[in-house]
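Support request from a user on the community tier.

User writes: "When I paste my structure tokens into the form, the page sometimes reloads and wipes my input. The last time it worked, I copied everything first. Here is what I submitted, just in case something in the input itself triggers the reload:"
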């Protein structure tokens, strides 16, 4: 498996979902039965008070749901009608 920072992983994410790639999201494994991914929380993905922006987590979930559904369906176009999100815990960014 590629390491999260390898060029192959970055290229895979960029080709599958360019907007996710822009915020630093990386898909490391994608099969009809499993998806492995990584997002390092940085200032790029946080609100001004160093909390992961809820729009980013919603965007990630929606994009991954679409991608995984597409792969699991045998690469058929599938429409996801409704996604619901609850943010139960803050994910903060700490500058060291």
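"...and here is what came back when it finally went through:"
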């Amino acid at each position: 498996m590629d390491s999260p920072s390898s060029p192959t992983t970055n290229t895979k994410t960029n080709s599958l979902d360019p907007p996710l790639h822009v915020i630093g999201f990386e898909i490391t494994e994608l099969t009809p039965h499993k998806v492995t991914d990584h997002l390092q929380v940085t200032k790029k993905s946080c609100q001004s008070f160093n909390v992961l922006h809820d729009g980013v987590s919603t965007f990630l979930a929606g994009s991954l749901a679409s991608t995984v559904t597409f792969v699991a369906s045998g690469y058929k176009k599938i429409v996801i009608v409704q996604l619901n999100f609850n943010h139960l815990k803050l994910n903060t960014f700490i500058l060291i």
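Agent notes: The reload is a front-end session timeout and is unrelated to the input. The chain is about 35% helix and 10% strand. The first strand starts at residue 25 and ends at 30. Escalated to web team.
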